[in-house]
Design goal:
Layout (H helix, E strand, L loop, with lengths): L1 E3 L4 E3 L2 E2 L3 E8 L2 E5 L10 E6 L3 E8 L7 H12 L9 E5 L1 H5 L4 E11 L6 E9 L13 H12 L3 H9 L21 H9 L4
Parallel strand pairs: 1-8
Antiparallel strand pairs: 1-2, 2-3, 4-7, 5-6, 7-10, 8-9, 9-10
Length: 200
C-alpha cells in the first residue's frame, strides 16, 4: 500500500524518508489525426486514454539517525531490491489520486539529484497508473466449438453427408492387455474346406 498526506509517503508499509515536497499527476487522451487528401485541416479520431503518470518529489537531509545516503538506500530498495527482476504493483491511497480515479500503480522511475555546496539530496519518483487486463478463457468443447462443428457439417454436400451416415462404425479395438490382437477360433476342418473351395 502507498499512503500520501501532506508530509508522509508510505510504500509497502515503509514510510519514505525525507521531506515530501510535491505530487503531480498527468493524464492524456489518445487522439489520432487522419490525413485527408485535399483538406488542410486534419480530422481527429479519439481512441482512448493513456495511463496516468504520478510524480513525487522528496528532499533528503542528513539526520541524527540516518544520513541522506542511507535514506536514499531505503528508497532504492523499494524501487528495486537485490535480485528483483520485475517492478511491483502497489495500491495507492490519497485524496488527490482518488479524485483522478487512480487506485493501482507501478514504480516506474527513480531519479536522484545532488548539487555541489548543498547538503540536500533531491529524489524524484515516477509512478505509472496500472490497469490490469481481464482475459476471458473458454473451456474446450464449449458451445462455440459445437457450433463450429455444426457449421462445418452444414457446408458438406448432401451426397457426402449421406455417405457419412451410412458408412457404419469403426471396428472395436481389442483388449490392450491381451497378448495378441488376433484370436484363432476357427475349426481346422472348416478352414481346410474353405481353402479347397478356392479357385487356385
Amino acid at each position: 500500500m502507498i499512503y500520501i498526506d501532506d508530509s508522509i509517503v508510505k510504500v509497502g508499509g515503509v514510510v519514505l524518508p525525507g521531506l515530501f515536497k510535491s505530487i503531480e499527476i498527468k493524464g492524456d487522451a489518445l487522439i489520432e489525426e487522419q490525413e485527408v487528401e485535399g483538406r488542410s485541416t486534419k480530422p481527429k479520431q479519439a481512441t482512448g486514454y493513456e495511463d496516468a503518470k504520478i510524480n513525487l518529489e522528496l528532499i533528503l537531509h542528513d539526520g541524527p539517525v540516518l544520513t541522506k545516503l542511507q535514506k536514499l538506500e531505503a528508497i532504492q530498495n523499494l524501487f528495486k531490491k537485490k535480485g528483483q527482476v520485475k517492478p511491483i504493483i502497489y495500491e495507492i491511497v490519497n485524496e488527490h489520486t482518488a479524485a483522478r480515479g487512480i487506485t493501482q500503480i507501478l514504480f516506474k522511475n527513480l531519479t536522484t539529484k545532488e548539487q555541489s555546496k548543498n547538503d540536500e539530496l533531491t529524489v524524484m519518483i515516477e509512478f505509472w497508473e496500472y490497469i490490469p487486463m481481464t482475459i476471458t478463457a473458454t473451456k474446450a468443447g464449449s458451445t462455440s466449438g459445437t457450433s463450429a462443428a455444426s457449421t462445418a457439417k452444414a457446408n458438406l454436400t448432401s451426397e457426402y453427408q449421406g455417405y457419412l451416415s451410412s458408412r457404419g462404425t469403426a471396428p472395436k479395438l481389442h483388449d490392450k492387455t491381451a497378448k495378441t490382437a488376433a484370436t484363432d477360433n476357427a475349426e481346422t476342418q472348416a478352414y481346410k474346406s474353405k481353402l479347397a473351395a478356392m479357385p487356385y
